[in-house]
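Supplementary material to the annual report.
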Amino acid sequence: MTSVAQAPVETRVATPKRRRRRLRRPRGLAVITWIYVLWSLVPVLLAIRFAFNSGRSRTSSQGWSLRWFWTDPVLSVRHDPTLWSALTHSLILAALCMAIATPLGTALALGLQRWRGRGSGPVNVLMLLPLVTPELVFAVGMFLLFTTAFGFIGLGTPAQVIGHVTFCLSWVVLIVRGRLVTIGRDVEEAAADLGAPPWEVLRRVLLPLLAPAVAAGFLVCFALSIDDFVVAQYLASGADTTTVPMRIYSQARNAPTPALNALATIMLVVTLLALVLAFLAFRFLSRGEKASATLERLATIDAGGPAK
Amino acid sequence: MGSRWIWRALAIPGLVWLALFFVVAFYAIVSVGLGNVTTLYEPVPHWNPLDWNVGYIWAALKSVVPGGDTWDTFLRTVIYVVVAVGLSLAIAYPVAWYAARHAGRWRGLILVLLVLPFWISYLMRMFAWTNLLADGGYATRVLHALSIDSLFQSIGLLDGNDWLGGQHIAVILALVYGYVPYLILPLFVALDRIDQRMIEAARDLGASAAGAFWRVVVPLSKVGTLAGIVLIALPMFGDYYTPDLISGSPKTAMLGNAINGYVQGGPDKSLGAALTLLLSAFLFVFMLYYLRVLRKENAA
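Predicted assembly:
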């Protein structure tokens, strides 16, 4: 960049022509972005398409049918016990994880937010550690824990639930604390000044205001648990503790039928339904905030980390 | 006094949970990695630091230096992750830049589409590619029709015709496909925060478009970019399912495959635990950096 090249730029700055130039849309970037979007989503759409094949192929389209979902008496998701139990087990794990991690995380967030001074530093680091630990390290640790010191719990569904709750907990804390910061302390102090004891402040003021964050917490726990592969696999104890991602992993390279596509499709639809439900709950609970802001906040909730 | 106790009481159950199932779990890796085994090779953890036995750590260390059993795998993992992160950045930066600053009325839609992969199971996204890259799959046919497969073969990027048969390039691209959405979002947030007036000021002061980008946008988005890189590099180092699904060959095994093989498959769980400890030590700096970024963002 020489000064000769710079000079004309400076003289152009004030002219209207220059203004237009600056506002012009960058076509190249738009093309890259749309190609990326297609590349990221089309493979999944095709996998869903193959789930509706009437033939056995998972690599090309062969008519349309619900054979692999329901009607095939042996191989469909509904009638193949390994696929059906994977589906129900994934949903049970996710439900238990939501039910435990969300209240536990909300309470932890409230506690940490007010915890000032001694001990607050290490405690906050402890809360964030699960987010920065590679999932394999976490899973190996849990596996060794439940096969040695906590052998009385052992591997299986309880261990899987504990594993999922442990990594969902920090997410709930992050979401709820984010909301606590935007609420501020004014309302709470006003309630206290009017004579409300701490318990009443919590129940009648903070919890209602926190409701959208709690709804988002439920959603994130559900999504993380449904999506998790590594922890569920390490803590599984046999066929009846196999989840959907585990079933995909063990069958993908093993001559699967489109029933596996159907299973993955069902999981995806369930997750998207949960997302829509959470969005509606979020809208309802945070009435008065702008819809687009709601969407963006909900969209960026999961920004923190890959979850398998 | 009374009100303070209510808040601490609320925090206690969650903290006890994390202490029991996160801290003790990590300590279990230490105890097994520094422990011993029974005659049946079942691990015997040594919980007391005074009883620690460094034999397995030593064996694990010897295996990850040049000439050791795991050295090739370790080197391959580092190369895969570096290349995959580089490619991810090359894709994610322009996409995030466009979405954050130029998308205009498409912004909402693009954001939703960029976030959508988060809600699709990672294993399903990988599985989708095994459909497409199989013999006769759509992607295989398109790549063949465009002669990309023969081009890759001639420059040595593809070995034979089978995309799913132990190809480095397939595993690296699968890693990019799997993790790039997680890089785009922090980049989007970082780039979205940059004040347009900063860029305009740089231009008004005579910087070229490239100069303004290099001297204003890049420094202002540095923390978000680095955090995003760490965010995708950490799980990549522990990944074993992507190579398993896309290749399944020992030729493309990563460190995660080695650890997974020891801990879940083989008889040598203690060596697996020791390798996990080494991996954690290797990633410690990255974890610390990410922790610091998270703490700053949540310091309220």
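Residues 1-21, 302-308 of chain A have pLDDT under 50 and may be disordered.
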